[in-house]
Amino acid sequence: MASVEVLPVDGRPSEPDGFREFVEARSNALLRSGWLLTGDWPSAEDLVQTALAATWPRWATLSRQDAPELYVRKIMVNTFLRWRRRRWNGEIATGRLPELQAYGDAFAQIDARQALIAALDRLPPRQRAVVVLRYFADQTETQTAAAMGCSVGAVKAHASKALARLRDAPGLAELMTGGVAS
Amino acid sequence: MNTEERQLAEMLHRVTPEPPRQVTVEDVAYRLASEPRLGREPRPRRGFSWPGFLRGGHGWTPVLAALSVFVVAGASAGIATVATSQHSHAPAPGDGTPPSTASAPTTASPSSSAPSAPAGTSLRIANGMWGAGLINRQSFGQGSLTGGGDSLYAAGDGSLARIDPATGAILQTTPYSPPVFSRPVVVGNTVWVVWSYSGGDIVLRGYDARTLAQVASVPVPAIGGVAGQARGVLAAGPDGQLYVAAGDTVAAVDPAAGHVTHRTYLTADRASSVAVSPDGSKLYVGTAPSGSFQLLVYDLATGVQASSSRMPASGAGNLVATAGGVWGTTGTGMSEWAWFAPGGDLSSSFRVSQGTGAGLDSVPVYSGGAVWIGGSHELVCASPVTGRAMAHTPIPTDRGVLEYFGSVTVLSSGHAYALYRDQAAPLAGVASLTPPAACSGS
Fold it and tell me: pTM surpassing 0.80?
């Protein structure tokens, strides 16, 4: 049964001070982290929106502690892990993983992205989250542990296992040592 | 970090693309309004606490309650209407929808028959846009739906399936995993697919349109090796002749004889996509020189190249030819969008879809006298002559999560069908559509 909801425009609660600036400044980085976690843009958007929606009500407290981004990333990771446990993961067909082209090829960027996502898909969700937080979001081991709700030792273990798996991923070694332009 | 970790970090920053759009505060406000649970405190993980982070939301409940009053009341000035959540729960058995067990068995070989499901009513989806109703709940590969005679065909989950459009039931299946994105092509009583597409080896296979028993296997050597980013590599001319992008050439295959009859040799680059004009006079070939997409036009009667044009693009392909020109897509994955080049001239091409989030659902399909372009934002039927939209409808979201329509196929009965996917429900399958009369073609 269809339903129609209305979105209040004038009636919604006022935005917390600084929230809009934060979203505008960090949306790009958060979305790219979301893409690395989920492998596609719609899911990445969903993930970031979910995390920011959870952040809005707590903004005053978080901004006082100067840690809103840590909280957003924590919600993103927890939501991602929950999705992986519970949510249907419908694959979007993208065809077979193509062979890597010579660097400089027009399609090299696209091939590189596909190879990267294919490599990340080989990782268990928690190892993937550690890779994104540690090596893309540039979080320390302590920050990563806090975001994931685990110990620093566990972060180190996840990172070590993830690196070992990525070493065997087709095409990733060339990406790590090569020079495909973004 | 050690050297390996630094290399990984550098590579992640270098390869991760820029998003097609940014998240805005308005997006977040909408999510809060439509899903108030997002504003509630998350349950702390076992054995972990984050002082401060998990507190501080206590004063928010009254605000959200007030927000919900606006949501329910919704009558005052300054309120925007947003249609959402057309199926906020998974339909329970017995609601008249075809049971999911009607899906195809995928282990049958070489082909098998599945019992016909009883005719059932379709499940209304996407707010009923263009009368959309789900007649089948089998998930198929994006862009793989095609039609012939009184049947639909689609590939997915390791098989090619014949689908009864009246009931949505899977009638036959045969094992098939597409090696490259290219819609099956129905010629006469045979469904042709690209069975193998790698290096110098291409194999086409033909299946009986009723039984899906294999009736032909045609090897087509790819001279120079197949293109790395080939998409839309198989097309049929009006005389039933098949054309395949085969490395440095386009191979013409006589389906009756089951072999290559002649080749068109390209002057440069490898063919990544191919299409034939409806009157059979022109062969359109896409190639991908570095940083651009090139469209070559050949006179099929003489084999002489008539023209070429190019556009800056990546990942272009999926050519479709109509009376007015050529259609195709550029970009890949979720940033894919469709263009139309009047007369096959890319210099005068223009964009005909919104893209962003469409993926392979945005691949144009010429069927029932119109060109159809799906995606996640809108469904369009366009004139095959002018390339202009004749009608379009927005595709709603399900609680903020995108829904997709694509691969629209019109059967000779005049009924239209599409592949549908809703990741929030979750729900996927074949949908019936009742497009407006404006889409009946020109």
Answer: no
